[in-house]
Each structure stands twice: as C-alpha cells, then as structure tokens.
Amino acid sequence: MNPVTGYAATISSVDMVAPALRRFVLSCTKGTFPAISPGSHGIFAFGNEHRIWKNAYSIVNRSEDGKTLEIIVRRAEPSRGGSDFLYRHGKPGLNVSVISISNLFPIFRTGRRHLMISAGIGITPFLSYMTEMQKSGMDYALHHYTRPEETSAFKAILSPYDQSRIRVNEGRQNAVSSLSMLLEREPITSHLYVCGPDSFMEWVRQTAAEAGYVTAKVHSERFVSPAGGRVFEVRLARSGKTITVGTDETLLEALENAGIAAPCLCRGGACGMCRVAVIDGRPDHRDHVLTADERDGGNVILTCVSRSLSPTLTLDL
Amino acid sequence: MSIDTTFRSAGSYRAPYLLENSDAAILRFPFPFPEDTYMYSMNIEPHVKAGEVDSLRRTFDVDEHYVVECQEKARILSEDPKRCIVLPHMQKAEWDFIELAMNSLSEDYPDLFHLSRDGMRWHWINRPLNIDQHFVFGDAGTLPYAPFEFMARQMQGDFTLQDQRDNDLWMDGGMVTSQADWSLKFDLGMSFKQWHAPVPKAGEMGIFDRGLRFLLMLQHGMPVRRLNWTMTINPRLDTSPENFTIWGRDRTVVTDDNAKDLVHLRVELQTLFRLPRSNAILFAVRCYLLPLRDIALVHKWRIRLHRVLRDLDPALSAYKGLDLYRAHAVHYLSQFDNNELTSKGISPDQDIIVHM
Pfam families attached here (chain B) (predicted)? Predict the structure, then answer.
C-alpha cells in the first residue's frame, strides 16, 4: 500500500441492485486489501480527466482471499456528482483507488445482543456486521426500513443472511408503533445500532430514548454526504493564497486542488481530523463533530463538509 | 540481525544480575532525549523504517538479547501465568497480532524468521528459539498456546490490546513481564484515562485528551511510535508491582561510587498499530536497559543525560521513582559535562566507541 495513494484497484463487476442502487466489486491491482473490521468505510478515489472525486462508502464485504472489496452506491441527489459519476460511469475496468480504510462504527464487542435498525442505503455497514456476527455466533437482529419500490432489491441484498434474524419493513406507516414495541421487547443488555438518513436516525434515537435506552447503548454513524452550495473565497493566511470554492466542490477538495496539504480522514464530517482554525469569516457548519460552543465560537471549521456563510473565509493554513 | 549474529546465551535479569551490551548495542540504543531538558510532550512520530538510531528501523526490533529475554519472559510466565490475560471479546485482535508479528518479523529478519501461507494454512519458523509450527489461521486449537500468547512469548517487550468503543480505548488484553512498575492485572479493563490516572501533570497539560483523540483515528498500515523513559536499579526487566518487595529496596543502596554500575537508563520504544480485523489497537512496549557506565561511552549522551537529570521537574522525578538515587547519578555524570553545546536529536554522533 502506498501511504498517500492507498490501494490501487479497478471495478471488476457491477450489479444493478435497484434502479438507483449499484453494487460494485473492486479488485486490488497488486496484492491484497487488508483485513477489514465490520463497520469500516473506505475513502474511494475515482473520476475522469476533468475531475477526481474522493467519496466515503461503507465496505460491505471483503473476499476471503483479500483480492476484492464490495460497496453499494446510491445515486444521491442533491450531490456533488461523485456517486452520480460512479452510477453512470462505474463500469468494469474503471480505476478506483482505496485511499484509506477506517472504522468509526465498530461492533460493540462486549455486548450480549445486537439490534440493528437501518433505512435505505444505511443497510451497508450492517451487511458486514452480520457476516461477522453469524461467524462468531453473536446474538443479533436486523430491522430494515425501505421504500416500497425497493423492497425486493433489499430482500435480494439480504438473501444470503440468516432470514430468521431479519425483518424488512416497507415504508414508515406501521413502523412507528412497531419500532417502540420491538425496542421495548429487547433485553436490557441489547446494544442498538442505527444507520440511515438523519431524520430516520433521529426518529430511532428518540424512540429508543422513550423506551428507556441509555445513550451509551445506542450507536450510530453520522456520515454527512458533502453537499454543494454557494461559491465562496478562501484566503489562506500562512501561504497568502486565495482560492475559490465552487458550487459542487467541497472546501477540502478546493484546498487539495490548490496543492495545499490539508489534513483529513473520513471526508464525511464524522471524525474531526480536518479541523482548521478560522481567522475571519462565518463558517457554515455541516459536521457532527464540533461542540455547540465550537460552532458558536466560529473559530474552527471542518473542511470536508462545511462551507461559508460569508463571501470570504480566512483560514490558518 | 542475521543468523550469523550471535545472540547472547548468558545474561540474567535477576540477582545475580548480568547484562552486557556490545558496542553495537550501545550505539543503537534509543536514547530518549532530543534536547538537554525534558518535559512531557506529544512526542509521537510515524513508525517508519527509518530513524536516528538503528533500533527504530524495524517494525519489531530484535537485538542480541533476544534469546535471553524470551527465556526470562517464559520464566516469569511460569511463576505468574496471569501476566498474560486476554478477554474473550479480543479473539479477533489475537489473530491480527499473529498476522502483524509474523509478517513483519519474517520480512525484517528473513534469516531468523520464516512464514509461508497457503490460504489459511500457515507455517511459522522461528530459528533462534527453534520453533517450527504448522497451524490453521483462525483456529486456536492448532496452536500450543492461545494465539496472542503463542506469539508474544516469541517477542521482546510487552504488548497490550486495546478495544475501541464509546470513543475510548479499553485495555482488554496483554502480556506484561518487563514493565516499569505497573500491572496488567490492575489495569485490565480500564479506559485510556483510567490507566493513565497516576501520571502527574500530563493530564492538566491536555496531553491525554489529544493523545486519545489521535489514537482513536489511528489507521491500519500507519503505525506510530514514541520513546518513554525512566530509570531502574540493576538490569531488571520485571520491575512489577507484584514483585516490588524484591526490587524496591535496591533503590536505597545506590552511592556516588556504584551509581555507574547500578543505575540504568530504561527506555521504552512504544509503538501503536491499528489492527484491521478487530479495529483494536496494539500497544507494544520494547524495553532497553543501559547502565550509566555504558552511556558514558557516548560523548553527547553522557553530557545530555547529566543535564536532563540535574534539571528534572521534581514531580516527574517522584513519579518515576528516582528521588532515592537521582543525586548520585547526577554526581557521577557531572564529571563529563564541560558546558559544551550538544547537537539536537538523539543520534550518538559517533560511529565507534573508544573504551577508556
């Protein structure tokens, strides 16, 4: 592995799971991918001669021999175009490098029982969870929520797993009462894992809190899919450079394109590694890491997802 | 090291003590002071195969004391088997450790260690310890010990396994036989801040907050290292709380005259690795002991150690247990310090040792 460019790979197969969902199998060009812990995500770099995207996706599976990884991508709207590019142009042979792999959503291994609740594409980390839980004989259950038109797609994705532990729910109509019931039925030792859109996760957390779950037993991965926004300028105090952040690129990407060695890791507002001091201007915080005080103070920004409310932002870079 | 290098066959890390260092071993010692003063800092750097001294340049360092140290470790484990404890939820981390250790040892020392893999069927050869083991990766029943213990017995230094949950690290396993006065039995199951609680000053300096935040983001394939230090009377690896009654009183017998032979600079090369299957963190503590008389053979180090010990913060001196004999060590080293300027960094700045 090259510490800067990561693992070189190409798409070896594409599977149309549903109209908006694609499953990609990536083959390592040289050697093997490292072993993966369940809940890991990778940062995947891909693109064309005009543009390179670096997007985070959960790793659904790594083959036993380590030669391939699988991801599932939804064409997201609104979007900076990364997932849309993969959706349209992700054909066998396309180069996709895996820049880094890390885990912000690990299984709580001391737990006696694991209850997973997901919606839509939020299923992806739990696919790797279930592979391991099945192998290690852990006690678990998965409740998945999907739009009616994608029910059959998710049922197909879930078909290799133990069906007695899985329930797929269509829509949210009956879900409200069923979720409280199922949460109340769980033994007090259960750990709860949630993954899905923000509003869904908030609903599950709220319902869990009402059912008496302590926050230490409720786990979620709050990735932000970096969205675009208004164009703004960034002044870099140390280098004296001024760069422009376009509507469909992130601040981090603009910094990287300008050749600035900006820190980063998750690229989804979840880890805090890309924190940079703000000297002037008003940040538009879109991450899940900064505390309320840090947000209000306005002296720091996470470049991977956040933008600017003022036309110009001056950073300590 | 290669198979042609002779490992020492004689040596004793308990009374009657015997530890001899070759000139090469002295010059590769990971001297821990890049400057003439010492205070806690976030002195973490990438653990790459480069460094100012040779002992930093391998994933896991093996030196001339390898065989005798492994024998001492086996002896401690037979007297006190609970020096090795791994909690049940750390099984994946045990196999991660096997993979990391066997891969890197066989790559760094092809003359000493050999690994061949055929799918899950692995074959491990450790020539210095005469071990030839076929096993199935992932099947603990095919090894003579549990996987972590099997491997940690074949390596110098201590190892702990940290589980990551709730944005914290938990010491949920390890093998600890060459420690500077701490106990795995006591710390097992503790969180990062709990096991660091006895350390003075660093908490208020914010070092543990930053350290924990950094380690939670540690990535596979990008290990980090730092040097830590204390002092030990006699070349004793096992300065454990369990055996305090054996070694504690040694600190009272140091004099200006015997300090050069009794007082050892004890350096820990601490390395941290993210383990890929388990998402756990391996913490490796490789211990090096060098008596003041050997440090005095390196011009720069003897001057610098004098200044560091002379000016050490009293709280650190007390925490490291140096108060009973620090003055004697400073007295011995003061004869070498002629007030000259020393170069930055830990390099010995000399290629050979001139014996006086």
Answer: HODM_asu-like (PF11927)
Burial of A311: CB neighbours in 10 Å, binned 0-12, 13-18, 19+: exposed
User: Given a cut of 60, is residue B3 above it in pLDDT?
Assistant: no
**Best interface-test mutation with B: which of A64, A98, A110 has the largest number of B CBs within 10 A?**
A110
Asked if A100 and B99 come within 8 Å (Cβ–Cβ), the reply is no
Last residue of a domain, one of A190, A220, A250: A220
Give me the residues of chain A with pLDDT under 70, please: 1-4, 77-79
Mean pLDDT score, B67-77: 97
Residue B47 lies in a domain: yes
Q: Mark whether A240 and A144 lie in a shared domain.
A: no
Residue of chain B whose Cα is closest to the Cα of A217:
B166
Rounded CA-CA distance A60/A164 in Å is 21
Q: CA B29: distance to chain centroid? A: 12
- Residue A234's pLDDT is 96
Query: Does residue B341 form part of some domain?
Result: no
Q: For residue B206, what pLDDT band results from cuts at 50, 70 and 90?
A: confident
Shared domain for A119 and A178, answered yes or no, is yes
Whether B293 is catalytic is: no
A141 & A191 share domain = yes
Please report, rounded to a whole number, the percentage of residues in chain B having pLDDT higher than 70.
98
Q: What is the CATH number of the domain that holds A137?
A: 3.40.50.80
Counted across chains A and B, CB pairs separated by less than 8 A come out at 50
Distance from CA of B112 to the nearest CA of A (A): 24
- The residue from B14, B57, B75, B226 that is catalytic is B226
Cβ-contact A305, A266 below 8 angstroms:
no
Percent of the residues in chain B that have a pLDDT greater than 90, as a whole number: 87
Chosen from A1, A33, A37 to mutate, greatest number of chain B CBs within 10 A: A37
Looking at residue B259, its amino acid is: A
For the residues of B224-276, what is the DSSP string, one character each?
EEEEEEEEEESS-S-B-GGGHHHHGGGGGS--TTTHHHHEEEEEEEEEEEE-T
Q: Looking at the structure, do residues A173 and A202 belong to the same domain, yes or no?
A: yes
Instruction: Give residue A27's domain range.
Output: 9-102
Give the total number of structural domains in chain A.
Answer: 3
A181 and A241 share one domain: no
